[in-house]
Amino acid sequence: MNITLLENHWYGATFSPSARFGGDDENGHGHEDTTPEAHGGEEYQEGGHEDSTARRLAMAAVVPMVVAGVAVGVVAARRIQARRAAHADELRRIEVDAIEYANDIAE
Asked: Half-sphere exposure of residue 54, counting CA atoms within 13 Å on the CB side?
């Protein structure tokens, strides 16, 4: 098999609509038409989920989880920063000790 054909096959298998969305191809075969016209025009509604109580409850549950996730991330970042600062301070002390030792030997 030619390498170009192999690359084209890989690209098609990786980035085609069927690989990404589970459909057949970009001609629309295998995809469900979700436009309002396909479902009878104006009388088709999506269940009014924009104002539903379930959606509000889901958002009310998601917001605290996002806030908690951000808080955990901030705490972790601060711990990492403190650990790096302590390590840098230790390296500075070692460097100062080495310089003092070298000065003592030179005298």
From this structure: 3
